[in-house]
Structure formats: C-alpha cells, structure tokens
C-alpha cells in the first residue's frame, strides 16, 4: 500500500475521525483513568509534531505524534510517541511500520536520541509491533509510574548522518 508521511496540523476533520476511533479503541480496552490520550489542543502545542500517513488517494489512514524536542541546552534528547493509530482498513499492510520508520528518521535528524512510549498490556498488536520495531520494555516513567495497566518501551535512535 503506497503511503506518504508528512507533519500536519491535527485540526482537520479526517484526523479528528482517526483520533475519535483511537479513543474508542482505547476505551474498549482500558478504564478512563488508564487512558493517557492527548486531545487536539495538546497536539497543537509547541514541541509536538503530528505525523499523518495518507494512502494513494490522499485519505488519512494513520496518525502518530512525537512530543518533545531537544531543549536549548541540548540536555533533553528524548521524545514520547503518542496517539499512534492506524485506520482498521489498513492494518497489517505495513502502514504503521512505514509511519514509525519515517518518524524515527526525522526525529534522529532533529537530534532526538531516544523515543519512549506507553501502551497497555491488553494492546497485544501494539506490544508485538513495538518489540518487532526494536523497542525494549523499560520501567514505567513520568505519569505512568504506578499504573498497573501501563507498559512502557524505549528505543535509542541511530545518529543521523550529517
């Protein structure tokens, strides 16, 4: 399946639909207090890049956000992957892998050294996907510390070619 990946504004009707579907899916698996979904306002904040995968017709079929960027002092080189979701029509067609790889390449070029993320133990497809993409399970971090329905992962990115 041919897809293009670009950074776009999250405030678009078709992206709102992907975020709605993502939220419904998360709510079907976990109680509200165990869902850490960012809304459109949070996705529009500085330091957040929203990546959109579009199929050959231009339809948005996948979304993911990268939160955080190196600070001015160069001490923070970690970003968190949030809201990664593929439309059910394109699952198992390689779109998620294409989106993740593009995001990792762009993040490394911006100086991000590590991507971290949180998912849940009932998200079996996500757990397998991230493990297969080279992410390793790490201790719970940040707002997820103490959350019994959270599983955290991290991946060190290769240095970008200058």
Automatic annotation (TrEMBL):
Q: Does the keyword Transferase apply?
A: yes
Matching Pfam families: Acetyltransf_1
- Sorted UniProt keywords: Acyltransferase, Transferase
Family annotation (InterPro entries): Acyl_CoA_acyltransferase (IPR016181), Bact_Acetyltransf (IPR050832), GNAT_dom (IPR000182)
All copies of the N-acetyltransferase domain together span 5-158
Task: State if DNA repair is listed as a keyword.
Answer: no
- Top-rank taxon: Bacteria
Q: What is this protein called?
A: GNAT family N-acetyltransferase
**What organism is recorded for this protein?**
Cryobacterium breve
């Amino acid at each position: 399946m041919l897809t293009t990946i670009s950074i776009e504004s999250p405030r678009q009707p078709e992206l709102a639909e992907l975020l709605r579907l993502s939220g419904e899916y998360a709510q079907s698996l976990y109680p509200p207090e165990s869902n850490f979904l960012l809304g459109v306002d949070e996705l529009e904040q500085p330091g957040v890049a929203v990546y959109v995968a579009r199929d050959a017709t231009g339809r948005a079929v996948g979304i993911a956000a990268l939160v955080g960027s190196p600070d001015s002092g160069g001490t923070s080189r970690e970003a968190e992957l949030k809201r990664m979701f593929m439309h059910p029509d394109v699952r198992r067609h390689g779109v998620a892998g294409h989106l993740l790889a593009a995001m990792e390449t762009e993040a490394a070029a911006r100086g991000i050294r590590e991507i971290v993320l949180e998912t849940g133990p009932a998200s079996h497809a996500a757990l397998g996907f991230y493990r297969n993409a080279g992410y390793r399970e790490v201790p719970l971090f940040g707002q997820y510390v103490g959350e019994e329905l959270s599983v955290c992962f991290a991946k060190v990115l290769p240095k970008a070619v200058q």
